[in-house]
Amino acid sequence: MVKLAIHGGEPVRRSPFPTVNDKSGRNIGREELELLKRVVESGALFRYSGTMVSSFEREFAGFLGVKHAVASTSGTAALHIATGAAGIGPGMEVITSPLTDIGTIIAILGQNAIPVFADIDPDTYNLDPEDVRNKVTDKTRAVIAVHIFGLPADMDPLVELAEEKDLVLIEDCAQAYLAEYKGRLVGTIGDIGCFSLQQSKHMFTGDGGITVTDDDELARKARLFMDKGWDRSLGLPRAYVMLGFNYRMTELQGAVARAQLKKVRWVVERRRRVAESLTKKISGIDGLIPPKVPKGCKHSYWLYPLKIELSMFDATLDDIVKALQAEGIPAGAGYIGKPIYMAPLFTEKRGYGGTKCPWICPLYGREIDYYEGLCPQAEKTIRQLITLPCNEYFTEEDVEDIAEALEKVLYYYRRR
């Protein structure tokens, strides 16, 4: 038996993989510099003094085939703009996934609304539409569907539910550029779509976001919410017509975003080829479950998730991940570690100003608790989940090394 690197053996890989953290795994350079140079030379870095952000908004809307796009400072801001435009407020519930970044939840709590968590489908890691239906109450006003890892959520039943119950359906597409559900791009299926431009995303400006919709009134409110609630068309005195925030993207971000938009299709296509190659190479490893892509869907592989059948191995998930890391593979365990509702923010209801607000808001008037066992499938799945990077600059040799390390480590730990 080959000795694992974690036990002193020779690692499969000694050189680093291309990474989204720097130029080794990011398509950025001359095109971005040319547009940035134009902004700097103009001296107009504010979005309403220049043209880069407004141009990016028009180009992104055209890219997705939607009517409106509103750029902002982050993916979190893009989501908060969506809940703000949708009129989410105190005493209202918003149902979302327990397997997500806190940015999704900030968009709810930022409106003094109540996050409600529905369980996931253990095969796709996305919201289980049936459990979403079970969680709807008379206080429910919206659903945020998170297209996790780049795989579309099951949107048809969510659209049907939203129409039946008069709910706003928001898509969190931070990880899912150009992912497709039954021939439609994610972000164009619900009422509002939200994208992130953070460093690790398919296209990036370091941080940044953009919110899209075909609804004229939602778009109007989204623009107001992004710009401090200020209706600039009304002149002086300044007309602050609704509560809003300063989520304005700068011209520097807009310049980079415009250049990146021309590259994102290539990025997604490359990642799909990398993922397809890896899936083929590891498909024969017992106890290892590659991503399952439902018929009619296209994955965009922000990450490459793997499920481990731990009953087949004499090791914990952490043991396996640490062994892979020792082999030189940048593997992660469980994505966010635990379902997000198990964080102290939720279990102890650490709200505004040290209070339990918004959970104790009189406009809500009921009890809600977050606890282990709330979403059993999410809790079980996250204990089986390994995430691997899926980078557009991975070579066939990189893919071979990942597959070899997985086979080596899992063969060692397999029950005999």
Main sheet summary? 7 strands, mixed
Tally of helical segments: 13
Under CATH, the homologous superfamily of the largest domain reads Type I PLP-dependent aspartate aminotransferase-like (Major domain)
Reported by name, the CATH topology of the largest domain is: Aspartate Aminotransferase, domain 2
Structural class: alpha/beta
Globally, the shape reads: globular
Widest beta sheet: strand line-up: 1-9-8-5-4-2-3
Radius of gyration, taken over Cα atoms and rounded to an integer in Å: 22 Å
What is the terminal-to-terminal distance? 13 Å
Series of secondary-structure elements, N-terminal to C-terminal: HHEHEHEHEHEEEEEHHHEEEHEHHEH
- Strand tally, please? 14
The CATH top-level class label of the largest domain: Alpha Beta
From the coordinates shown, what is the CATH architecture of the largest domain? Answer: 3-Layer(aba) Sandwich
| Average of the residue pLDDT scores | 97
